[in-house]
């Protein structure tokens, strides 16, 4: 659980920062939220701040919608025969849900390939929401999910709070490769500059 949670949070953080670099308005909105709720020069973002940062939560969850750590859910087995979407599924069939397809289905999500953090809040508030399941759903969902999302959220918050970020080159490469997880084909590179009024905090980290 610890290895999976830590690895998933690192991948999610890389995708989230890449998306924020290519969507500067989202970066500005997130920084404004953090500066407003945490304060911009007295302390670093910590765990107790996360409930007060709904846009940060939306950024991480929208990242997981677009780039789930696993594009295919771990295998499950049908406990009894059933019909799904017109297909007969015998008992004992090994099933692997395609999370990538679910999260980018234009019949479910408007402009599914676009990064829109604001949309996630409404989706998560839907009763019995099953269209967003980056770490599985129900009793068999990933036991390390909470830790992974928590670490990614907190780290992204601190990075956005403390540094100015710039792309290297004209655009960020968002190509991916699918192995055991959904990874960037070319690892992210960016320029970061400490925000001057936070140097006194960074010098003690």
TrEMBL record:
Molecular-function annotations in GO: heme binding; iron ion binding; monooxygenase activity; oxidoreductase activity, acting on paired donors, with incorporation or reduction of molecular oxygen
InterPro entries from the UniProt entry: Cyt_P450, Cyt_P450_E_grp-I, Cyt_P450_sf, Plant_Cytochrome_P450_Monoox
Keyword Metal-binding listed: yes
Keywords tagged on the record: Heme, Iron, Metal-binding, Monooxygenase, Oxidoreductase
A Pfam family matched in the record: p450
UniProt-annotated binding residues for heme: 142
PANTHER family to which the protein is assigned, alphabetical: CYTOCHROME P450 82C3-RELATED, CYTOCHROME P450, FAMILY 81, SUBFAMILY K, POLYPEPTIDE 1-RELATED
Protein name as it appears in the record: Cytochrome P450
Organism for this UniProt entry: Turnera subulata
Lineage of origin: Eukaryota, Viridiplantae, Streptophyta, Embryophyta, Tracheophyta
